Amino acid sequence: MLFHVKMDVAIPLDLDPDLRAETLAREKAYSQDLQRQGKWPHIWRVVGQYSNISVFDVESTDELHELLWNLPLFPYMTIEVTPLCPHPSAV
Amino acid sequence: MLFHVKMDVAIPLDLDPDLRAETLAREKAYSQDLQRQGKWPHIWRVVGQYSNISVFDVESTDELHELLWNLPLFPYMTIEVTPLCPHPSAV
Amino acid sequence: MLFHVKMDVAIPLDLDPDLRAETLAREKAYSQDLQRQGKWPHIWRVVGQYSNISVFDVESTDELHELLWNLPLFPYMTIEVTPLCPHPSAV
Amino acid sequence: MLFHVKMDVAIPLDLDPDLRAETLAREKAYSQDLQRQGKWPHIWRVVGQYSNISVFDVESTDELHELLWNLPLFPYMTIEVTPLCPHPSAV
Amino acid sequence: MLFHVKMDVAIPLDLDPDLRAETLAREKAYSQDLQRQGKWPHIWRVVGQYSNISVFDVESTDELHELLWNLPLFPYMTIEVTPLCPHPSAV
Amino acid sequence: MLFHVKMDVAIPLDLDPDLRAETLAREKAYSQDLQRQGKWPHIWRVVGQYSNISVFDVESTDELHELLWNLPLFPYMTIEVTPLCPHPSAV
Amino acid sequence: MLFHVKMDVAIPLDLDPDLRAETLAREKAYSQDLQRQGKWPHIWRVVGQYSNISVFDVESTDELHELLWNLPLFPYMTIEVTPLCPHPSAV
Amino acid sequence: MLFHVKMDVAIPLDLDPDLRAETLAREKAYSQDLQRQGKWPHIWRVVGQYSNISVFDVESTDELHELLWNLPLFPYMTIEVTPLCPHPSAV
Amino acid sequence: MLFHVKMDVAIPLDLDPDLRAETLAREKAYSQDLQRQGKWPHIWRVVGQYSNISVFDVESTDELHELLWNLPLFPYMTIEVTPLCPHPSAV
Amino acid sequence: MLFHVKMDVAIPLDLDPDLRAETLAREKAYSQDLQRQGKWPHIWRVVGQYSNISVFDVESTDELHELLWNLPLFPYMTIEVTPLCPHPSAV
Asked: Using CB atoms, which residue from B81, B85, B86 is nearest to J83?
């Protein structure tokens, strides 16, 4: 079941640089793990913004919330979720 | 080069039914032809709306405009284009 | 799996009265059938508006879209879907 | 009498961790007490957001304001209230 | 129990003049009847707009919806309802 | 001459508690003095928000600005003013 | 007493040309009469739009509403009124 | 003196085809004449929209309004004008 | 050449009081000097807001930007500029 | 391939003055280098705002993101990108 997810990142400018670096490293590992499991099949950068547009493939809304809530960058993000379904014209 | 495209469809309620059916058939054929060429790699229906979220893969902004402008449903659509690029965490 | 659905109805003022009455009757029957099946567990009127706020309980986003797309009033509605999940403080 | 309430939580990132934990514990107890009394019959998490959508069942707008104003997280919340009433198609 | 109600009127320019006049007369009678009953204690015109700001005093949200839904101008109005309660500084 | 005034209060979370208490006490006294003079005939709390909706009765826009500008909470408020006039259907 | 008034004009494209011309002529005469009386001291065209920004000088909100409500173009306009007062830095 | 101008075109779907074609031809000739005079130095199509983003180079706001008001498509356009000036980092 | 300028002021609550007073004094002197030169012919306070609506009369957009950029309060302001031109109905 | 880019700058008021000066100097050098390479053919100041409107000429969305992400002022900017293409009426 697919969901379109837009994530806008706004890390405070005065965040401790070590904490920042460590959080970004954890975010990357967390994201790549989910990508490898097939739960996060698409992630693109929005040009000119600290944002991504992603597609998640999950069993339930509950699982999706769990995945998003545990993103290391979650406290610094604004997230918008749009449910998707197959398009009748898709080949 | 990838672009995120959101299309919201608003066909007038009083459009001639035959014209409507014929336009929808042309739209489907047009879309499927571009999907098979690899130019329109993703198309999803937004749940509960007469809208789709798509990703296009084109050589240039000029080509993208050409493809969108010639959509049979173009006169009835509101289209929003967001340029994408690879995400540094993508596997 | 629960989804929050807001439906705003805007039937054209000049719609044929018989078609209007017949569509409203079909909408009511359709809705009540889904409520009895347990797929549409909550429906409330928004005070002062021709709108409802509903909760749907479905197996998938695909099923939800199917249910909404086939609403007899769908052509006259603006629908907004928000995915829900259990709240950790719910008793 | 039912009211739809959307609560968006934005706890400052630099809030003292003990105060944060203690406030969250009080919020949970406060919410569960009202749920058990039947005054807060529904509470759902919005997927991907630190927000909930709730339904309150109260005697008056005055009682509703009293309940919301005394939420331990009230100073950190944006709250939007929508009055509801029975829907004519509800079974 | 008080509710703040904003009503914006948009009567179609091509509405039959007799129907228009008759609807406006019914609206005025309906409004004045509710004012005399004490259910619609305040109604003001917004300067420069075909809009009013009103306060209703009702027993329930259900009664309020009933009153608004039966306004003769309801099909031509956009209505926004805000629940009120006594202010702690009111004398 | 009547004006509709919406005031949204946002006192900084880290304001000195004594200054906060003293400012709120001055605000209450200031408001009640104007209410007793008949210049501030209505003040209601918006349910679930640190906001009020008020009606002022003044001689001029100049007097209204003077009254609002000197509110002890003015530095922490967002204020929106809408001019009113008698409604032709008012009894 | 001064009020800032923004008027956006949207005459239907299919309005009868004679009615259109006659209404525009009446609007011009009405406006110039008020300008000569000193009640409408400023009127400017917004560049690139069928809109004006004006300043009215009236005795009351009631008088202002009367003037605006009787504009021949009123049925085709969206009007926004902002109350003004003298600025402390004005020379 | 430069102005940034965004033009969104919305020709009614039921406009007479001959009038439409004739208006578009006049628009093109009008635009190209101004481009050749150096008054309309830039015009770009916005990808996926019936819109353009342009830069005008004029002597005054009065001249700019004259040029825009006389666009053959003016009755079908929404126009937004933003004044520009040289950037201190421009080479 | 006239421009409509809206300035919203938001001085940080914790700005050093001396710096605040000194900046406000410089702003007043700067504004009054431009008013006396005829470059800033109108300045009004918006009722209930720390905002002004002004009209500037300048030779060019470049001159206008220079005047606004050098306002002592510029770093604390949000400014919106709308180009004006003579209205055909102005007397 | 052309992209329209709007950049709004909001440097924190309490940024260290030396860091501020040094960042602005690097931004200017960076911008002028790209201008000289032909990748940033237009940059204009928006009158009355700490914003610019620019046009970039790049090979790909990927290159554009790279250029924008590395702007020394990127952490203090809000950036909006709109893809452009040749206009059929351009001479």
From this structure: B81
CA dist H30 and H39 (Å) reads 11
Are J38 and J57 in contact by the 8 Å Cβ rule? The answer is yes
Q: How far is CA E53 from CA E6, F23, F54, in A?
A: 5, 31, 12
Q: What is E57-74 written as a DSSP string?
A: E-S-HHHHHHHHHT-TTG
CA dihedral of residues G57, G58, G64, G70 (deg, nearest 10): -80
The whole-model pTM stands at 0.96
pLDDT digits (tens, 9 = 90+) for H29-75: 999 999 999 999 999 999 999 999 999 999 999 999 999 999 999 99
3-class DSSP assignment, residue D51: strand
- How many angstroms separate the CA atoms of J34 and J57, rounded? 10
> What pLDDT, on the 0 to 100 scale, is given for residue H76?
98
Indicate the helix (H) or strand (E) that contains E52.
strand E51-57
Instruction: Report how far residue A3's alpha carbon sits from residue D46's, in angstroms, rounded to the nearest whole number.
Output: 14
Chain D residues whose beta carbon lies within 8 Å of the beta carbon of residue F76: none
| Residuewise pLDDT in 10s, chain B (91 residues) | 999 999 999 999 999 999 999 999 999 999 999 999 999 999 999 999 999 999 999 999 999 999 999 999 999 999 999 999 999 999 9
Interface of C with E (CB under 8 A): 13, 45, 47-49
CA E20 to chain CA centroid, nearest Å? 17
* CB F55 within 8 Å of CB F5: yes
Distance (Å) from the alpha carbon of C1 to chain A's nearest alpha carbon:
7
Residue D40 C-alpha, separation from nearest chain A C-alpha, in angstroms: 21
Interface list for chain B against chain H, based on CB atoms closer than 8 Å: 3, 5, 12, 61, 64-65, 68-69, 75-76, 79-81
Contact E53, E4 (CB under 8 A): yes
The contacts of residue I52 (CB under 8 Å, 6+ apart) are G87, I6, I7, I43, I44, I45, I46
Low pLDDT (below 50) residues in chain C: none
What is the 8-class DSSP label of residue A86? E
Predicted ipTM of the assembly = 0.96
Number of CB atoms found within 10 A of residue E79's CB: 19
- SS3 assignment, position G38: coil
| Count of all residues that appear for chain J in the document | 91
pLDDT tens by residue, J28-87: 999 999 999 999 999 999 999 999 999 999 999 999 999 999 999 999 999 999 999 999
> Could you give the count of Cα atoms lying within 13 Å of G18 in the half-sphere of its Cβ?
0
∠ CA B7-B8-B13, nearest 5°, is 140
d(CA A66, CA J70): 33
| Closest C-alpha to H69, from H53, H82, H81, H57 | H81
Is G54:G84 a contact under the CB 8 Å cutoff? no
User: Which of A11, A61, A76, A80 to mutate: most D Cβ within 10 Å?
Assistant: A61
CA distance C63 to C61: 5
Q: Which residues of F touch I49 (CB under 8 A)?
A: 79, 81
